[in-house]
Specification:
Protein name: EAL domain-containing protein
Strand order of the largest sheet: 30-31-33-34-35-36-37-38
Organism: Massilia jejuensis
Number of helices: 37
Domain GGDEF: 564-702
Domain PAS: 292-362
Strand content: 25-35%
Distance between the termini: 119 Å
Largest sheet: 8 strands, mixed, barrel
Radius of gyration: 45 Å
Pfam families: EAL (PF00563), GGDEF (PF00990), PAS_4 (PF08448), PAS_9 (PF13426), SBP_bac_3 (PF00497)
Structural class: alpha+beta
Number of strands: 38
Helix content: 40-55%
């Protein structure tokens, strides 16, 4: 008995035993949607597929009753959540689904997803998907994964209710590609004239899913069975997988079946010969047969073929015994009846058309018909009387078994000549026959292979010949399968999946071996590509965040075992954005690749150099010392080495570029709360290095966390302060050369409910980084304009100008110009009395945008002062383009202008530059008469500082002006 038949008998017996001893219980309702070959409803309405077969095995062992419920995917999900079904096979695990459904622990299958397109498509990479329509099963894991994978590529997802529908959309050109698991795609692509593209994504683990708390015992049982099956290569689990990989792939037809087929064909030919003889006799000797009607009837009644005579109106005039047996009526009940009465209207229309073709066309007619589920060959012959056809004789022979045998042979031939390599060998492992696919893999013609030995193969690419051990295993266990390295005729190796089965006759004697193999080079390359995409950065080839996290966890575990310390070096390139913006991302990418090369040169082979993204890198140093001091010294040495390496000039885009970086170092000391804490500490240390001026390194210190906590608290309090109007404006007077107060600068103060009045140094920096400077700046501008309007109403202060500081972030807001003009108009203030103070940073972050906005505001009368001039980056080429009214000498130069020659020289230069550009000059921070005299001597004619006025409220300032 063939192995497959024995297996089915065994399953039947086990099922009977299970039912005999089972405790009656409610059936387990299982959802089935169309996703062949994993799970589907066959044409007969029976559930089938890998998941169904495995569940039936579990149910048989656990004595469950199964009830399969057909549904579309979304309907299955809804039914599971509503409790109409208990279990849903073939659900891919994801974090979101793990929160909604219950899964067992051991995956039932491992799969991946792939895009399939029409043959001849030009989809080779994600870049080819721009503007393409991708059909995907709605609510599936592919739909979720594709949304992130295709982000930025311009592809459009088209949800469908089933995978068949998705493939049909592509076949009908209503979509360009469809996403499916490789199980479904490989099984169904050819039927839709589709082919797999190289785009592979979303490696997945597939499970049976239930609702939490409902079927935990069922899930536990599935886990037990899967765990047991996976330990044995000859288990039901692997047999089921192999069965569905090679459904219909049996390489030959047993000799016994061939004899049966031959006998059947012989009988059919004999019957056809008799029928043909009878037809000839009817045609040639019609008159003579009338005289021998009784004898002829006896002969005709003994024939299995249906023999009948109809008149020109298709009424039966004669029927033989076989026809009577078909209708289960005597001949008298059939004679005179028509096909419409005996077969029904639809069948009668077809037979009547054939009858007319014979009677009116005077021609013999042959056709195949299906009656009551069987196939018949019908021959109709015109019966001529004189020159007129008055009747016809029909002979209908049951050819069902012949057609089945013919179809089986056709399917066997198609399977043998399929794309999978197949060969049949004798008991001595000598090839008898091989198909073209096997010959193509081996590298020889199929005609040359019979009589040759089975080719050499090994389990490893450079391993020993494994053939003899494999044959011993097949003779003992009847089959063997595995991933191997086959050797071609020219000696080259390639990876393949090899399956070998022993064929025995009815007496158990080994007659043949049947082998199948498929080249899995593309699959292995895809696996390697998946690993590369999952764990490595595509630009630099360095490990990515995911692989880094795995290795950091290993480092922490190692520290717990042997107290051997490690360190994380967080590295961020200084001013990398400037290079990207000025010279383009291609040049920036080239620099990052060179940085990666230099970092690798600075690290050991045991260290991990990873790229987190953008211009951020992390270097993991493992086993660098048993004590903290030693580990810190080594980490600092490596950090200095990296700083020095990156200070060396780079050649990018045909030009020399000088770069630097900031490094934050966090030691793995055993005091961390975990991986996330260690990464956060390294990040904090890196930002501290940035604040220290860049191009340096900084070790993590607990105070950094305190500072972050403080900044978080202040940011929260700032938001509350904006909501509860806790800010006030103070004003510091500005005087001219005659000592007359000409105006003031508005300075914001925070009236904190617990800490009292706070100056800007305590909160402006946090407001800048958090983005709260925008609403705060808007409040300051509105309040200042309202005060300016009030001063305009008093003769003593009508001449006042008011300077208001504007942050870079506020000025670069897209609606800053419109918002400022609206505030000025609403307050009623004279715009020519408003002076906006800008910093030099604007000349770095957006010169063209800055000049455009300033010119628009300048046209409405608003004045501009350049604050803190000389402390930052000043480009004279941009300075002369800015529509400025005033330069302000920073107080850092004024403070030591009398004792520091450099500060004095800078002050002179600022005044000279301002005068040459026709600008007014004002110095801030003037606290002594000596400072004022010096500044007046070099040409500065406006001052601001404690010498004249401290920051005070508006009423006090008005009193000082009076």
């Amino acid at each position: 008995m063939p192995r497959a038949h024995r297996f089915l008998v065994l399953l039947f017996l086990l099922g009977c035993m299970g039912r005999a001893g089972a405790v009656p219980q409610a059936p387990l309702r299982v959802g089935v949607y169309q996703n062949a070959p994993k799970v589907f409803m066959g044409e007969s309405g029976k559930a089938s597929g890998i998941f169904v077969d495995l569940l039936r095995e579990v149910a048989s062992a656990e004595r469950w009753q199964l009830e399969f419920v057909a549904c579309e995917w979304q309907a299955c999900i809804a039914a599971l959540e509503a409790g109409r079904i208990d279990l849903l096979p073939d659900m891919a695990w994801s974090e979101d689904r793990a929160r909604r459904y219950a899964f067992h622990q051991v995956p039932a299958l491992h799969s991946w997803s792939q895009l399939y397109a029409r043959r001849g498509n030009k989809i080779r990479s994600l870049l080819d998907l721009k503007g393409r329509r991708i059909a995907v099963l709605g609510g599936s894991i592919q739909a979720q994964a594709l949304a992130s994978v295709l982000a930025g590529y311009g592809a459009v997802l088209v949800p469908t209710v089933s995978l068949d529908a998705a493939f049909s959309l592509v076949a009908d050109k209503e979509a360009d590609a469809a996403a499916a698991s490789h199980y479904f795609g490989d099984a169904n692509a050819a039927a839709h004239r589709l082919e797999a593209t190289p785009i592979v994504f979303n490696p997945a683990r597939l499970y049976y899913a239930a609702m939490p708390g409902r079927q935990q015992a069922v899930l536990d049982a599935i886990d037990r069975r899967l765990t047991g099956w996976r330990t044995g290569p000859n288990s039901v689990y692997f047999a089921t997988l192999q069965h569905w990989r090679a459904v219909g792939s049996e390489g030959g037809v047993p000799s016994g079946l061939l004899w049966v087929l031959a006998a059947t064909v012989g009988l059919l030919l004999s019957a056809l010969a008799v029928a043909n003889w009878l037809r000839n006799e009817v045609a040639v000797r019609t008159r003579e047969l009338r005289d021998n009607e009784h004898k002829l009837a006896t002969i005709l009644d003994s024939v299995d073929s249906l023999i009948y005579i109809k008149d020109a109106q298709s009424r039966f005039q004669y029927v033989n015994g076989a026809t009577c047996r078909l209708f289960n009526r005597p001949a008298a009940a059939i004679i005179g009846q028509t096909d419409e009465i005996l077969f029904g209207p639809e069948q009668a229309r077809m037979t009547r058309a054939a009858d007319l073709a014979v009677i009116e066309g005077h021609q013999r007619f042959e056709t195949e018909e299906v009656l009551n589920g069987k196939v018949y060959l019908t021959t109709k012959i015109p019966l001529v009387r004189g020159e007129k056809v008055t009747e016809l004789c029909g002979i209908t022979t049951d050819i069902t078994s012949h057609k089945q045998a013919e179809e089986s042979l056709r399917i066997a031939a198609i399977v043998f000549q399929s794309g999978e390599g197949m060969c049949v060998l004798n008991p001595d492992a000598v090839i008898i026959e091989a198909n073209q696919a096997w010959a193509a893999l081996y590298g020889q013609s199929a005609d040359e292979l019979p009589g040759t030995a089975f080719p050499h193969f090994s389990l490893d690419s450079d391993g020993d010949d494994y053939r003899e051990r494999m044959w011993d295993s097949v003779r003992d266990a009847q089959s063997w399968q595995g991933e191997v390295w086959m050797r071609r005729h020219d000696g080259r190796c390639y990876p393949a999946w090899l399956t070998v089965s022993a064929v025995r006759d009815a007496d158990g004697i080994l007659t043949n071996f049947v082998c199948t193999q498929s080249d899995i080079s593309a699959r292995k390359q895809a696996d390697e590509k998946i690993v590369q995409l999952a764990y490595f950065d595509s630009l630099t080839g360095l490990p990515n965040r995911r692989l880094l996290y795995d290795r950091v966890k290993h480092c922490l575990d190692s520290h717990e075992r042997n107290q051997d310390r490690g360190a994380l070096l967080f590295l961020d390139m200084d001013n990398f954005k400037d290079l990207n913006d000025s010279r383009g991302h291609v040049v920036g990418d080239h620099l990052l690749q060179q940085v990666a090369t230099r970092l690798l040169a600075c690290a050991r082979e045991s260290d991990t150099v990873a790229r987190l993204g953008g211009d951020e890198f992390v270097i993991l140093l493992e086993s660098i010392g048993a004590d903290e001091a030693r580990a810190q010294a080594y980490a600092e040495t490596v950090g200095q080495k990296i700083l020095a390496a990156l200070r060396e000039p780079f050649e990018v885009g045909g030009a020399v570029h000088h770069a630097s970086c900031s490094i934050g170092i966090a030691l793995c000391t055993g005091h961390e709360g975990g991986l996330d804490d260690l990464m956060r500490r390294g990040d904090l240390a890196m930002y501290e290095a940035k604040r220290q001026g860049r191009n340096t390194l900084s070790f993590f210190h607990p105070s950094m966390e305190s500072e972050v906590t403080y900044r978080t608290v202040v940011e929260t309090e700032l938001r509350a302060a904006l909501q509860h109007s806790q800010f006030v404006l103070h004003y510091q007077g500005q005087v001219d050369g005659d000592g007359i107060m000409t105006g003031a600068e508005a300075l914001v103060r925070w009236q904190h409910p617990t800490r009292g009045m706070l100056g800007p140094a305590g909160f402006i920096g946090i407001a800048e980084t958090s983005g709260l400077i925008v609403p705060l700046g808007r409040w300051v501008l509105r309040t200042a304009c309202d005060q300016l309007a009030l001063w305009a109403a008093s003769p003593a202060t009508a001449h006042f100008t008011l300077a208001v500081n504007v942050s870079v972030r506020q000025f670069l807001q897209s609606d800053f110009v419109e918002e400022t003009l609206a505030i000025v108009a609403a307050s009623g203030a004279d715009p020519s009395r408003l002076k906006l103070e800008l910093t030099e940073t604007l000349m770095i972050e957006g010169v063209e945008e800055t000049i455009g906005k300033m010119r628009i505001l300048r046209e409405h009368g608003i004045c501009f002062s350049l604050d803190d001039f000389g402390t930052g980056y000043s480009s004279l080429s941009y300075l002369k383009l800015l529509p400025l009214d005033q330069l302000k000498i920073d107080q850092s130069f004024v403070r030591d202008v009398l004792i520091d020659p450099n500060d004095a020289s800078i002050a002179r230069s600022v005044v000279a530059l301002g005068k040459s550009l026709g600008l007014k000059i004002i110095a801030e921070g003037v606290e002594t008469e000596a400072q004022r005299s010096f500044l007046a001597g070099i040409g500065c004619d406006h001052w601001q500082g404690y010498l004249f006025s401290r920051p005070v409220d508006a009423r006090t300032l008005e009193a000082l002006a009076a």
